[in-house]
Specification:
Elements (H helix, E strand, L loop, with lengths): L15 E2 L4 H8 L16 H21 L2 E5 L17 H22 L6 E7 L14 H16 L5 E7 L2 H13 L4 E6 L12 H12 L5 E5 L3 H4 L13 E6 L6 H6 L8 H14 L5 E4 L5 H15 L1
Parallel strand pairs: 1-2, 1-8, 2-3, 3-4, 4-5, 5-6, 6-7, 7-8
Helix pairs in contact: 2-3, 2-10, 4-5, 5-6, 9-10
Length: about 325
Amino acid sequence: MAKYRHSLPQLSDQLFLTDGGIETSLIFLDGFELPSFAAFDLFEQEHGITGLHNYFVRYAAIAKRLGLGFILESPTWRANLAWPNTLGYSAAQLTRANQAAIDLMIALRGDFETERSPMVISGCIGPRGDGYNPRAKMTADEATDYHAFQAEIFTESEADMVTAITMNYVEEAVGVARAAAAVGMPSAISFTLETDGHLPTGQPLAEAIAQVDDATSEAPAYYMINCAHPTHFDHILETGEPWQHRVRGLRANASKCSHADLDEATELDAGDPAELAEHYSVLRRRMRNLNVLGGCCGTDHRHIEQIAAVCAAVEA
């Protein structure tokens, strides 16, 4: 039975952490091969399962030590129906991979959750296509049907919520939110932004959030930003407009490079963890609802530890 599905604790003012750039960490720091950036493929190997477990332990331990909440985001960003075709997975195998990912999150929560550190299990849903480039867009109805596959798996599990990571156009975000709502799951929608602070489609973030809310009767519990550096979007968050209260989460890139440059990179750009943490601190002071903090490409537990330290100090 899901523990927090009907009362997400991160909707309070408590600070919550989540993990960093799982795929870049597993590839560049831990030495795993991830075809198509598919972390869920590691469930096929015993040492891969150990690697995933050890990856999440680093972050959960930070949250527990600091007495902060934590979002256990399942490694299922690529575990939707489009991607396994390149890996030779059947729908049944893909279902088992999604279930195994939630089972790992359940075990980690059992090991690390305390009264001071509630740990929410989130079923991660990624885009059907490229996370950076919305080349093959679905309609909202098509996206609802498509993402129902993972939403239905997660609602039958102990997952507390669904989080759509790296959404780059509105119709797919609407589809995920509708698919989650249809099976009684709260959702969070995380948009990726370009260096100008707009979605890859060119749409301003404020308009994207308003459009999703209008199309879903405000189904998402909250919104997030991921896969962009704070210098790319901090200017759009300076005005304190009402829509910004819908943004609770941030999973920034370590690198200041554009998506195009990151696509061509052959080495990891880990940036400066202390500098990134300071950016988070500034945004946290400006946006008191911003209380779910993690990382994306190039970040690891060192970045999250710095972010946790400076942002927890903001609370004091």
